[in-house]
Specification:
alpha+beta; Herpes Virus-1; 4 domains; 15 helices; 17 strands; flat; disordered C terminus
């Protein structure tokens, strides 16, 4: 078959860079023109770009016009929309002939994956396609979210991205990110007179525009200030040497001593030199082992720690985190409020745990994660540090004190006290808190007596 574009055997540096951009950018699919034409918009942007697959591929963005190479929008369609592996030979060509495009459209480039395999969340939810029973009259059942299910607009995995979702109430029952379907509805230029939004999958009635607007408003409350912090601010982390909090920039973690962190300046000074360290620049990155020559050179591409969750949350601290049983009138019952781990709504009788960063989850969803990790699964906030943790902060916090809070035993401070380290106020530098100082003095006097 005659081909207009030259066939490539290897990916070029430009296309590889565009693939990286595509995989790290949220792009919304606003409209399809047949099976190979797409209208796209980057999240937060105002300009639309039209992509057409063919021989050659084309895009209306200025990068493609200038370079005449597959841009990030073309790469996004191939990698996200059609799930081509980035190393597949079809993913970096200037264009594809009709036979090759048909293979991409029908998914012949990959084998079907077992969606339930190694997925406890999906296994706990039931069999694939099982419907949820909580639905409004006249609507269809909401489909259970399975592993690898993607939003039809941004093409990102629902359980992986952990964004609030809505579902098609009068058509297919499939789940879509609330923020994405809101952009989709805005693109349709619906007026308040038009009561319903069309589903991007089945084109049936998705929901009323009023309900979608209410969901978007309520879902916005699920996003906390901690999520908006810069990625290089390691929230909740205190440098054990200079006591700066939070550590900003590169953060270093002792691989031997639990809950022991250093900022970059203190690490370079050689503080705590007798143990190896791991480091990361962003709080959601994996820890990487660091060479011993103070040069911050990672020890090879496979230098990630085998267990990324070095410090699990102590069981005593987990018991301190407040829980609420959802009752009638609770704002957690509003449309759009949901656990961002399982992406299911909060319902009457559910127990909800609140973390110090103010994120709320089903206790069944988050407790297992916290027993393996000391961080919030959404923003990476480090929950427990012996230098800053005080049970009184958790008991008296006005935002967290409602409902069935976990009551602590009188000797809970003994479980959290580490010999040689006083429990300190969050704003204190190196001086132990008064309560810790009195406790140590009394113990010392009893020893002398």
């Amino acid at each position: 078959m005659f081909r207009r574009t030259v066939w490539r055997n290897t990916v070029s540096d430009a296309v590889s860079s565009h693939q990286d951009q595509a995989l790290n950018t949220t792009i919304l699919l606003l409209k399809s023109f047949g099976p190979t034409g797409f209208l796209l918009r980057e999240e937060g942007g105002s300009r639309n770009f039209k992509v057409l697959l063919g021989d050659p591929h084309t895009c209306t963005c200025p990068v493609f016009t200038r370079e005449q190479e597959p841009c990030k929008h073309i790469c996004w369609v191939l990698l996200r929309k059609f799930r081509l592996p980035r190393e597949h030979e079809y993913s970096f060509q200037h264009g594809l002939v009709e036979r090759q495009i048909l293979e991409v459209l029908h998914g012949l480039h990959h084998t079907k994956a077992h969606r339930m395999e190694n997925d406890p969340a999906a296994a706990a939810s039931g069999t694939p396609g099982q419907a949820l029973t909580d639905q409004e009259p006249g609507s269809v059942c909401r489909k259970v979210i399975q592993a690898q299910d993607v939003c039809p607009i941004c093409q990102e995995e629902l359980l992986e991205k952990k964004q609030p979702v809505s579902y098609c109430r009068f058509g297919c029952g499939n789940n879509v990110h609330i923020s994405c379907v809101k952009v989709w509805a805005d693109h349709q230029k619906l007026s308040d007179r038009e009561e319903t939004v069309k589903c991007p999958l089945c084109r049936e009635q998705f929901s009323s525009l009023k309900l979608l607007q209410e969901q978007a408003k309520n879902a916005a409350r699920l996003f906390t200030a901690a999520e908006r912090e810069k990625a290089d601010r390691h929230l909740g982390v205190v440098c054990h040497s200079c006591r700066i909090c939070p550590v900003t920039g590169k953060c270093f973690k002792c691989t031997v001593c639990p809950y022991f962190y250093l900022c970059e300046d203190c690490w370079k000074k050689g503080c705590h030199p007798h143990h190896p360290f791991a480091a990361r620049t962003k709080r959601r990155e994996k820890w990487r082992l660091v060479a011993e020559d103070l040069s911050y050179e990672p020890m090879g591409a496979t230098s990630h720690l085998e267990n990324d969750s070095i410090d699990p949350l102590p069981e005593a601290v987990l018991g301190c985190l407040p829980t609420v049983r959802v009752r009638t009138g609770n704002r957690l019952l509003d449309d759009g409020q949901q656990c961002r781990i399982c992406l299911q709504d909060f319902s009457l009788g559910h127990r909800v745990r609140t973390l110090p960063c103010h994120h709320k989850f089903h206790t069944d969803c988050v407790d297992g994660t916290l027993r393996k990790s000391n961080c919030c699964p959404l923003d990476g906030y480090v929950i427990y540090n012996p230098l800053t943790w005080r049970t009184s902060d958790q008991k008296t916090s006005p935002q967290l004190s409602s409902g069935d809070n976990a009551k602590q035993p009188e000797n809970s401070l003994q479980d959290l006290f580490i010999p040689g380290v006083g429990l300190q106020d969050r704003n204190a530098k190196a001086t132990p808190s008064c309560g810790s100082l009195n406790l140590q003095v009394q113990k010392s006097e009893s020893n002398h007596s």
